[in-house]
Amino acid sequence: MKILVAGAGGFIGHHLVKRLKADGNWVCGVDLKLPEFEDSSADQFIIGDLRDPRVCSQAVVPELDEVYQLAADMGGAGYVFTGCHDAAIMHNSALINLNMAEACRLNGVPRIFYSSSACIYPQYNQMDPDNPVCSEDSAYPAQPDSEYGWEKLFSERLYLAYHRNWGLEVRIARLHNIFGPLGTWQGGREKAPAALCRKAAQACDGGTIEIWGDGMQTRTFLYIDECVEGILRLMRSDFSGPVNIGSSEMVSIKQLAEMVIEISGKKLSLKFVPGPQGVRGRCSDNRLIKARLGWASSQSLAQGLALTYLWIQQQVVESMGADLGAAKANPGL
């Protein structure tokens, strides 16, 4: 098949391109940037801003069999929940989805996947860290915990409206905390698993790592390979969704940090500090995807964290080596 992946320079998009190519497809990627940590496997890569409808027209062509729309203005808690980026998040992502939906309609694209988020779920159902409610039918009455979640919910409705009014075949997944190697691990946009792996890798034995909040907030985390598998199964099914794609292994952020510390082999203590946290509890309810697609995640969180920590540890070592080399080359700085 001929496939377009929008957001192919990002974490999930890059892994999705690799899988689609391994399955024998011709793949075009489009994004503002190339993947950061390794070359893209795409047959063609368009560097362009999907907020511009002309770029969408260049990327979305009638010959395509499938489009995967993962492009968005996003990041971890340090980016999404501070409130400092709300206008940019809503403006940029909404423009991308408005342009992509229309380009797919005009060019008769047979099917499009839209990457939504668990952030669409109501804040009032996620106050109890031990008993969050995140079933697909609980999305309304709507009260997402962030503008990021509101935009995702708007765009779900956008694609479903295009399906009803124009016959555009859509598949919508609500992704729950996807992690793994080749993802952002520093700079403020990284997610909790990457941030904790980085902190542990950078810490000296006997040191301390910081956690935002009291550590009792709960989440589920899904390894990237399983996320891609779930996306492909949904895309090739007759089910439009929205449907959760996530793990059912719920842990507190404190437990997550303790798992990372154990993997690191270091003796580290935790320090709880003020910081953006999001909702108190969130767990992927996977009953619908199991019933409709017969699929559930199988890899344990510990297995995925071990692979992620090894990769981030390598990035930290290489970064420290580069900094040391720069210091030697410029001793006066």
How would you sum up this structure, described in words?
The chain has 333 residues and is an alpha/beta fold. It has a domain at 2-176 and 224-245: NAD(P)-binding Rossmann-like Domain (Rossmann fold, 3-Layer(aba) Sandwich). Helices cover 41% and strands 16% of the residues. It has ten helices and 13 strands. It has a seven-stranded parallel β-sheet with strand order 3-2-1-4-5-6-11, with helices on both faces. It has a two-stranded parallel ribbon with strand order 7-10. The protein has a two-stranded parallel ribbon with strand order 8-13. Helix 8 packs across helix 10. The longest helix is centred in the C-terminal third of the chain and has 29 residues, at 301-329. The termini are far apart.
Question: Which tags fit this structure?
Answer:
single chain; 333 residues; alpha/beta; Rossmann fold; 7-stranded parallel beta sheet; globular
Quick summary of this structure?
The protein is an alpha/beta fold.
CATH homologous superfamily of the domain at 2-176 and 224-245, by name? NAD(P)-binding Rossmann-like Domain
Cα-atom radius of gyration:
20 Å
What is the succession of H and E elements?
A: EHEEHEHHEHEEHEEEHEEHEHH
How much helical structure, as a percent, in the residues?
A: 40-55%
Low-confidence stretches: none
Tally of individual helices: 10
Q: Can you name the CATH architecture of the domain at 2-176 and 224-245?
A: 3-Layer(aba) Sandwich
What is the CA-CA span between the terminal residues? Answer: 53 Å
Query: Would you tell me the structural class of the helices and strands?
Result: alpha/beta
CATH C-level name of the domain at 2-176 and 224-245: Alpha Beta
Tell me how many strands there are: 13
Mean pLDDT rating: 94
Percent strand = 15-25%
Strand order of the biggest β-sheet: 3-2-1-4-5-6-11
Main sheet specs: 7 strands, parallel
Instruction: Write down the overall geometry.
Output: globular
CATH topology of the domain at 2-176 and 224-245: Rossmann fold
